[in-house]
Amino acid sequence: MGEQPIFSARAHVFQIDPSTKRNWIPASKHAVTVSFFYDANRNVYRIISVGGTKAIINCTVTPSMTFTKTSQKFGQWADSRANTVYGLGFATEQQLHQPISSTRDKFKEVKDAARLAREKSQDKELANTALTIAAPQDLADELQSPPVMCVNGPEDKLFRSQSADITLSSEKERIKKMLSEGSICEMNLEAELFTLQDSNSKLVAALHEANTNVEQWKKQLAAYQEETERLREQVAELEAHGGQGPSDLLKDELTQSLEELEALLKAKDEEIHILQSKKAEYHEMEHARDEAMHRLRETEMRNSELERRIQNTEQNLSNSLEDRDRVDTEIQRAIEILDIKIFDLNDLRQSLVKLIDK
């Protein structure tokens, strides 16, 4: 039977930048068809999209994949086998394109079906894999426990102070979370900006075509006006030459020609009015694009500020750790000196006891 298509949608395809893992790279200049296929022989689901002669998406659906809807027109999922993240940007014309909710629901349905098929044949392998993954995590938790130092016995333990570590770690995690949210916002803005730029290019092409058509219509209108004037001159010449009006047949032909020209002129005026309204929409689209670019620049500035704060926090954390190690060294040295003094005092006490006994 081979692979059979089960669902299709048109969308703009993006891939995450492999160098930064933050920015989106358009994989297609225009909206392409993204299809879900099912292979009955291998019981495998795949997502395939072809742009021209090149496969833009060739992804096998696994139970661990998750389709995340990041905005009303954008969704994404990660492909660990290809070591990339795919993004789909949908247009706003709901009557021409499948909405993002249908794609998300179909993705969940296909993922659940793949999970069931995999659980039937690989239950034992999944259990072993889960144990293997869990063991390093437990070991990491043990390694992260705070160290202790024994001084003079099992009951005399000196715990390192953790208040500075907790404060700096919480501040670092909070800033990293803010930076992650800023990156997601930046990716959404870039996807919206790409959609606006695509719509802008379409409107520009339509306006150029409309301007060309207007020039052609103006030339045709001038030709029709010249033809009308020529016909009127012929009627006037016939009336003057014959001393009587033209025949009824010639009058009907001239009247019909004039009516056709007037109807054509009216239609051209309506088309010019429609093009002028589209020009207003084009200006609105340009304004929306400018706003999106402004918001993108603000997000980039905020991300730069957050990165600077993270670097400062890491530097402060490093300095605090060095200060703490230095204090620990001094405390250890003081303890050693104190142990020596205690030993000397003990010897002195024994000497005094012997002297008193004598």
Automatic annotation (TrEMBL):
GO terms for cellular component: cytoplasm; postsynaptic density. GO terms for biological process: G protein-coupled glutamate receptor signaling pathway. InterPro entries: Homer, Homer_EVH1, WH1/EVH1_dom. SMART domains: WH1. Pfam families: WH1. Residues 1-110 form the WH1 domain. Its main location: cytoplasm. Residues 200-330 form a coiled coil. GO terms for molecular function: G protein-coupled glutamate receptor binding. Keywords: Coiled coil, Cytoplasm, Synapse. It is found in: Cytoplasm; Postsynaptic density. Belongs to the Homer family. This is WH1 domain-containing protein.
